[in-house]
Backbone:
């Protein structure tokens, strides 16, 4: 028996785990009490790490398609096949013939942070699709426009704020998102204990809402109207106080004019909130010594997602809370480039190209994942003929999985880097499975950028790579070489090139710690036994704290880098060097929101919202018995009034019809959803043949995203509307057992 530390990769909270190992098998996981950030916290998912790690359905080696069927293959065969098949397609049809799909777990692995940018660079395709356009792309766009940097995302200063206004987030079940905070629930309770206040805006009375001082159960999709009315009230009641931000903001008067029509009375009907309650919310926000406004999924994956995300930060600015302790601050991660001096930047451009079929504008170099199917199945020049998926299951996670399922089946070539044969990867011609997490090192490149405290932690692999396994970093490196026509080159060449490229740039930058040094000498001094370790070491050395891999190794429970600190104006990369409070693309989208003021909600139309369960994670943890036992979770939650009106019976089936299809789900009657709203979770629908998910396929559930046809998008960010879309509900067919 031995123990090893491992940062949990199962949600954004990044808790430190202490694993118990019997040989190389993980037998238990508990919270690491000495972890500088998570201090022993863990949730039921973290506790199930051993089962997640040892799931017998995980693929143990590569699969290749031969005569229509997948068979086990050697790594050599698998990469030979990729190289032999993809190069002719690119040569004949050009780089855009290959689509790249990056899914959520890429933000939970070292490989997913370090290699996809190189894969995108190698393929030079404009057909890049990621889970961001099912999630947080509106935040990237609003940050890009406001601050000139799509990754400059302020996070609420949870541990110090006096007042938190939270929209469309349910951290008691999700453990938080774009706000990395181990024990988010405990931090909210501490906020209440120190006399702070919590307001939750959510059409459902979630576990988080139950913890709040006030819960506003607004109509789904109306957050942007609600937020605009808060901004309106701040101006109307002379509550705008920029404080230290004054010198760094432009466009305040333009915002005042832009929100003039959005009075609390004007939005009240659309939001189904009392105008008085909206005013009180604005006054409390302004009166709090410090406050933070924070919006997530439920205010992001909606029709006015970018406008809503923009308004969140407009409120943080107008109340003087942006960039101040207790407000909403910008984290500074240990692998971020060392801060440059303040001054004008390049700004953020949107729509530099558009998608072929529907002309959707790119955002942050990406096209809407909801448009992937049409880019494959619509004939014509520029059609996608090959797809590479990495850690993605869009057949379940994106709108209209049926159409995407058929489109993927029609491809000339599909390659998937994924541990499972699931609804998406079953179409692959080559599946390249990474090892289980115990056999991978971990560092949170992504989430340290959104953490409520600056810190850095590195956990080397807890167990050695099993026989026949390949580290996910090496899989990526070999894949990059195979698609580049460099098949056969040692994979270390990819890391060396990345180091050389980064150093060539850094030595020329005056604010870089290696300015003026000899790049070869810096590279030679890097420590680390693998390519990715050397790259991590380099990023730490080029970073703001001058850390090294050796320093992290010497502090296995992590290095605390202190509370978040103000970062303005250095962080701003807008062309003016100031916060652009009313960016032109936002101003151009506001008429759409004004039109929403007059839309009378149709009586009797139900709006569907999602929900998450603490023991689940998107589409891929339903195969773990320890996390799936108990009663059916894929239920349609309906308010008692709606159930009575629609003749729906608890435990019986309801038929749900949307623009993209229909399905039947078990009815759960509960007043935790507001009237007019039904809720169904996503990530279910494991009933397709040809997968290898023994447990999940036994209790498949239904795919909520089949109710969508992929046409409802937030126009500025290309993000799918996954919350608040209209559905019809009628009693279903046969009753349940
Ligand atoms: N209706 C509705 N739809 C939603 C949402 C919603 O709230 N409502 N949420 C959306 C959101 S926020 C997101 S992020 C997306 C998520 O959707 P996706 O990005 O498709 O992610 P998952 O469903 O989590 O699927 C993850 C895939 O990664 C694989 N995987 C797991 N671990 C690893 C690993 O270490 N390496 C590799 N290479 N692969 C791994 C799994 O086997 C699985 O195939 O879903 C979105 N879809
Ligand atoms: N247990 C678990 N944890 C997870 C995940 C998981 O699947 N399971 N997924 C991870 C991922 S990828 C992400 S992105 C995060 C997401 O984490 P969160 O951002 O916390 O998202 P959700 O838990 O989906 O909560 C969204 C809330 O928005 C509400 N909502 C729906 N429509 C509206 C609306 O129009 N307005 C408002 N104000 N609210 C609305 C819903 O009722 C729901 O309670 O969770 C991560 N953590
Ligand atoms: S809260 Fe998230 S990171 Fe922490 S143990 Fe649970 S799943 Fe893992
Ligand atoms: Mo997500």
Residues:
């Amino acid at each position: 028996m031995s123990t090893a530390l491992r940062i949990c990769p199962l949600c954004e909270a990044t808790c430190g785990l202490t694993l118990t190992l019997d040989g190389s098998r993980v037998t238990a996981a508990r919270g690491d009490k000495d972890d500088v950030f998570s201090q022993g916290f863990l949730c039921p998912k973290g506790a199930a790490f051993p089962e997640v790690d040892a799931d017998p359905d995980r693929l143990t080696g590569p699969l290749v398609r031969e005569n229509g069927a997948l068979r086990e293959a050697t790594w050599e065969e698998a990469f030979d096949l990729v190289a032999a098949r993809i190069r002719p397609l690119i040569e004949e049809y050009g780089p855009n013939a290959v689509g790249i799909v990056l899914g959520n777990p890429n933000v939970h692995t070292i490989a997913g942070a370090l290699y996809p940018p190189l894969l995108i660079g190698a393929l030079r395709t404009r057909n890049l699709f990621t889970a961001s356009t099912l999630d947080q792309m509106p935040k990237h766009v609003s940050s890009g426009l406001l601050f000139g940097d799509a990754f400059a995302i302020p996070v609420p200063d949870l541990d110090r704020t006096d007042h938190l206004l939270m929209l469309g987030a349910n951290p008691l079940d999700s453990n938080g998102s774009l706000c990395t905070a181990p024990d988010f629930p405990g931090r909210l309770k501490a906020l209440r204990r120190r006399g702070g206040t919590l307001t939750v805006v959510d059409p459902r009375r979630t576990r988080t809402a139950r913890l709040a001082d006030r819960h506003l159960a607004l109509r789904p999709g109306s957050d942007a109207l609600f937020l605009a009315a808060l901004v309106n009230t701040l101006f109307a009641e002379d509550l705008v106080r920029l404080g230290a931000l004054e010198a760094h903001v432009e466009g305040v008067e333009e915002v005042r004019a832009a929100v003039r029509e959005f009075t609390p009375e004007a939005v009240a009907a659309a939001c189904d909130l009392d105008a008085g309650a909206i005013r009180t919310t604005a006054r409390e926000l302004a009166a709090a010594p410090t406050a933070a406004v924070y919006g997530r999924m439920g205010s992001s994956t909606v029709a006015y997602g970018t406008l809503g995300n923009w308004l969140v930060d407009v409120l943080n600015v107008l109340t003087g809370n942006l960039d101040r302790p207790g407000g909403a601050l910008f984290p500074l991660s240990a692998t971020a480039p060392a801060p440059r001096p303040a001054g004008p930047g390049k700004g953020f451009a949107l729509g530099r190209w558009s998608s072929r079929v529907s002309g959707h504008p790119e955002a942050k170099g990406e096209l809407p994942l909801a448009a992937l199917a049409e880019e494959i199945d619509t004939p014509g020049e520029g059609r996608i003929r090959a797809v590479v998926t990495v850690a993605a299951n869009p057949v379940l996670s994106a709108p209209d999985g049926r159409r995407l399922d058929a489109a993927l089946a029609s491809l000339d070539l599909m390659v998937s880097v994924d541990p499972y044969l699931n609804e998406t990867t079953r179409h692959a011609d080559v599946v390249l499975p990474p090892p289980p997490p115990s056999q991978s090192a971990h560092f949170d490149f992504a989430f340290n950028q959104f953490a409520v405290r600056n810190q850095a932690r590195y956990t080397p692999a807890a167990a050695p790579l099993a026989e026949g396994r390949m580290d996910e970093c090496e899989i990526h490196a070999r894949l990059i070489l195979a698609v580049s026509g460099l098949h056969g080159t040692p994979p270390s060449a990819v890391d060396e090139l990345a180091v050389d490229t980064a150093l060539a740039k850094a030595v020329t930058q005056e604010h870089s710690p290696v300015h003026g040094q000899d790049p070869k000498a810096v590279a030679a001094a890097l420590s680390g036994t693998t390519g990715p370790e050397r790259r991590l070491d380099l990023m730490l050395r080029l970073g703001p704290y001058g850390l090294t891999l050796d320093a992290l190794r010497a502090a296995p429970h992590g290095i605390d880098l202190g509370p978040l600190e103000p970062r303005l104006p250095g962080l701003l990369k807008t062309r003016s060097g100031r916060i652009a409070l009313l960016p032109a693309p936002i101003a151009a989208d506001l008429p759409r929101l004004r039109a929403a003021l007059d839309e009378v909600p149709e009586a009797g139309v139900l709006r569907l919202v999602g929900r998450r369960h603490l023991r689940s994670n998107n589409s891929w943890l339903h195969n773990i018995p320890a996390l799936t036992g108990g009663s059916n979770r894929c239920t349609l939650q309906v308010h008692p009034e709606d159930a009575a009106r629609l003749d729906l019976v608890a435990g019986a089936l309801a038929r749900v019809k949307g623009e993209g299809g229909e399905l039947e789900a078990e009815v759960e009657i509960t007043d935790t959803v507001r009237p007019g709203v039904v809720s169904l979770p996503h990530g279910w629908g494991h009933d397709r043949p040809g997968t290898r998910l023994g447990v999940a396929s036994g209790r498949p559930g239904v795919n909520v995203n089949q109710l969508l046809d992929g046409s409802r998008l937030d126009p500025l960010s290309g993000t799918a509307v996954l919350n608040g879309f209209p559905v019809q509900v009628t009693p279903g067919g046969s009753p349940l057992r």
